[in-house]
User: Fold this.
Amino acid sequence: MKPIVFIPTIVISCCLCTVIGYKLGSQSKEADKSQSSIVDDSKNATTPPSQAPNNQGQPQTPQQSISPDDLAKAKNVPAKLENPQGDFTLVAVVEGAEANQKLSQSLKVVGAQRQRLTQLSKQYEQTPADSAQQKELLAGQINQIRKTLETNLRFMSQNFAYSLSYNYVLVPHLATMMRVRQGEDGKAQADVAYEFKDAATYESCQKLREQYLKLKQEKLKQEQATNGNTEASESPASPTITPSPEMVELKEKLMKDFNCDPDQNYQVHFKKTAIYARPAR
Assistant:
């Protein structure tokens, strides 16, 4: 299983090139049960700047009143994911399209806030001491983001067992693949292409599409070199190339098994995902 560092689109709306498992990152604190959703903004803060939230607790969710083995049996998912660098243990199962959409959005917001906090902290450190007004402005921005991030990490801890001291892998078990097309009115429309009923099927589709896109990119580079054009295209789906026999075979298999044209755009809506964790190193 090949993890991808979050923070992607998971709806979860994501292009089908996203693989089955990906690192979510790491984040948490004691759960704030009054919070019902992630926070994008907060009030201005006036206290001095400080470090990023130090949420180092063990991930906790209501599901952890039972053991990972019992949770795995109840939800019909594996209790562990084997990995050469250390196994991942099941900490939560997120069920329902709405809950998974909230997970996706939460991770995107938290990731953006952590990145912004790092940027502002670096900018603050590099600002000359005699630029008091600029440093004060940066201090306010840093604390505003820090406080919001702390609130969001409490929400993430309560709902998704998300802790700064752990790394995570998220595995989809139920998902709907939607083909995105342009309707007659010029607006984007999405039609159901395939229903994934288990993690293995989802992973198989992803791997086949990854293989196809890799071969297509290699074929594009070959034809560009032959034609004297060395500029790589930003979108491997846009140029017209002569597909290789292996590409044709992979495309036919994807169409037959998953109703998936690898040259088209898709969204994947997750309905059931399992979250696994291991201590960060």
About this structure: The first helix runs from residue 68 to 75. The longest strand covers residues 166-182.
